[in-house]
Amino acid sequence: MWADFRAALTSKECDLLQQIWVKLGRVKFTILGGGQEVSQTVAASYLRPGDWMRGYYRCSAEALRAKVATVRQLFAQVLGCTELGCDPASGGRMMGNHFGSRLLGSDGELIDLTRQVNRASDVSCTASQMPVAVGLARASRVFQEVAEISELFPRMSQGGQEVVHVSIGDASMAEGIASEAVQQAVVQRLPVIFSVYDNRWGISVPLEESYPHASVSLALSGLA
User: Fold this and answer.
1) Residue 28, exposed/middle/buried by CB under 10 A (0-12, 13-18, 19+)?
2) What is the phi/psi pair of residue 168, to 5°?
3) Distance between CA 114 and CA 15 in Å, rounded?
4) CA of 78: how far to CAs of 17, 18, 194, 204, 210, in Å?
5) Which residue of 6, 65, 164, 222 lies most exposed, with the fewest beta carbons within 10 A?
6) Measured between alpha carbons, how far is residue 63 from residues 74, 154, 173, 219 in Å?
7) Rounded Cα–Cα distance for residues 19 and 102 (Å)
8) What does R_g of the chain's alpha carbons equal in angstroms?
9) Quick check: 114 and 155 in contact, CB under 8 A?
């Protein structure tokens, strides 16, 4: 409980400071996750070593709670620090609040992914996280069904026992690739959890113009 509260509060304070930096001209641009902190931290708190996350650019609280990123790394990314020691996610090559786990060690060898919560690198295109998450979940199923693969790559999976958690805003769920991803996850019974944040508004379009009855739940109810 305390870890959830701490991550949510820390994320909120980071958002506020980034807003100040933008107004002062210290950074050009930042993307905030205000209002989603509690749901993100609760979702991340259930992830275990070996599990995967695939979020989008408003998931700083989720990344902090899962220890995919630290506060120092978050601000290093916003400032565009090019040192991997400062921003291990991309060395300043991704936009702010875009996270990702290091999969290789300094020696170039694969890190034991079963000992950490992993995050596939974020990208900015809306809904693009959805097919990636389904692909990760499909890989987990393959590890579960094909024993030979689990034996060959013991650092990549615990016999397919991991789950994938993906976050998305409700407006982005209207994208075709998002619908396709959910359908395939249901059809193949894949171990993926979808968190859809109820923002009621996209980047420039209200939810009423994206869904019948302005309800993602009703739109997806037939897939249950």
Assistant:
1) exposed
2) -160, 150
3) 31
4) 11, 8, 27, 24, 31
5) 222
6) 9, 25, 21, 29
7) 28
8) 18
9) yes
**CA-CA distance, 78 to 60, in Å (whole number)?**
12
The DSSP code sequence of the chain is: -HHHHHHHHHHHHHHHHHHHHHHHTSSS-----TT-HHHHHHHHHT--TT-EEE--TT-HHHHHHTTSS-HHHHHHHHTT---TTT-TTTSS-S-TT------B-TTSPBP-GGGS-EEPPP-SSTTTHHHHHHHHHHHHHHHHH-HHHHHH-TTT-STT---EEEEEETGGGGSHHHHHHHHHHHHTT-SEEEEEE--SB-SSSBGGGTSGGG-HHHHHGGG-
User: How far is residue 40 CA from its own chain's centroid?
Assistant: 9
Neighbours of 206 (CB within 10 A): 11
pLDDT truncated to tens, each residue of the chain (224 aa)? 778 889 999 999 998 999 899 888 888 778 777 788 888 999 999 999 999 999 888 888 899 999 998 999 989 888 888 888 888 888 888 887 888 998 888 888 899 999 999 999 888 888 999 999 999 999 999 999 998 998 899 999 998 999 999 999 888 888 899 999 999 999 999 999 999 988 888 777 888 888 777 788 888 877 76
